[in-house]
């Protein structure tokens, strides 16, 4: 991913937290000489060897998994908030731009055994059910319902590299008060970008 130096986030703990909070990503590999992408949850975990991995699954009907090559890298893309930034919010004349947060993860993919897939599903459901009014537990579902596990293919991706772009009006610190004020009047994505700018460079 092209990332100018001043937009690069090298705080690995912050970036890992971002992945955990924005785990609905895009898994990309090559299928019949074309890039193929699937939108799925990709959960950041550590495997039994202490390695950082992404864990997920795809439908067995999705032909992508038949082209998982453990010797080749796959790409996982995680998108965060983004927003248009009007240059009318600057003190000096300039072109408009777009602020955003995005993380690319590269790694090698390995298929999981059925028991590992089941464990990953428990982790996934428990993570997203914990704040539900009536949380479900996979242990409470019938064998017929749980038999659907045979229709998916689970995998883990051993991470080789993480690249993070946090484009947050760096270099325009004197304009941050007006940028933040304008963003806070817009949609949810703009408000999140305003908060990220404020976190990166708190206003005096």
Question: Can you offer a commentary on this structure?
Answer:
There is one protein chain. The chain is an alpha+beta fold and 204 residues long. It has one domain: Roll (Pnp Oxidase, Chain A), CATH 2.30.110.10. Helices cover 25% and strands 35% of the residues. The protein has helices at 12-21, 114-129, 143-146, 176-183, 188-200, and strands at 24-31, 34-41, 43-46, 52-59, 73-85, 97-111, 152-167. Strands 2-1-5-6-7-4-3 form a 7-stranded antiparallel sheet. Strand 3 (43-46) and strand 4 form a beta hairpin. Helix 4 (176-183) runs antiparallel to helix 5 (188-200). The protein is elongated and about 65 Å long.
CATH superfamily: Electron Transport, Fmn-binding Protein, Chain A
CATH architecture classification: Roll
Number of beta-strand segments? 7
- The tally of structural domains comes to 1
The CATH class designation is: Mainly Beta
CATH topology: Pnp Oxidase, Chain A
SS element count, helices: 5
User: What is the terminal separation in angstroms?
Assistant: 33 Å
- Percentage of residues assigned to helices: 25-40%
Q: Please identify the structural class as seen in this structure.
A: alpha+beta
User: Major sheet, described briefly?
Assistant: 7 strands, antiparallel
User: What is the CA-atom radius of gyration, in angstroms?
Assistant: 20 Å
Shape summary: elongated
**Strand order across the biggest sheet?**
2-1-5-6-7-4-3
């Amino acid at each position: 991913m092209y990332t100018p130096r001043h937009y690069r986030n090298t705080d690995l703990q912050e970036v890992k937290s971002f992945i955990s909070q924005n785990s609905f990503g895009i898994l990309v590999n090559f299928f019949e000489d074309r890039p193929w992408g699937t939108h799925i949850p990709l959960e950041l975990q550590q495997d039994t060897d202490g390695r950082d991995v992404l864990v997920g699954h795809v439908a067995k009907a999705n032909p992508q998994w038949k082209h998982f090559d453990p010797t080749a890298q796959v790409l996982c893309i995680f998108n965060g908030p983004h927003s248009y930034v009007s240059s009318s919010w600057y003190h000096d004349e300039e072109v408009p731009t777009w602020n955003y947060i995005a993380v690319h993860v590269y790694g090698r993919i390995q298929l999981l055994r059925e028991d590992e897939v089941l464990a990953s599903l428990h982790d996934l459901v428990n993570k997203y059910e914990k704040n539900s009014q009536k949380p479900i537990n996979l242990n409470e579902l019938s064998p017929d319902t749980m038999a659907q596990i045979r229709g998916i293919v689970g995998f883990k991706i051993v991470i080789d590299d993480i690249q993070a772009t946090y484009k947050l009006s760096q270099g325009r610190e004197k304009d941050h008060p007006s940028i933040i004020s304008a963003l806070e009047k817009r949609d949810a994505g703009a408000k999140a970008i305003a908060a990220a700018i404020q976190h990166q460079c708190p206003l005096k």
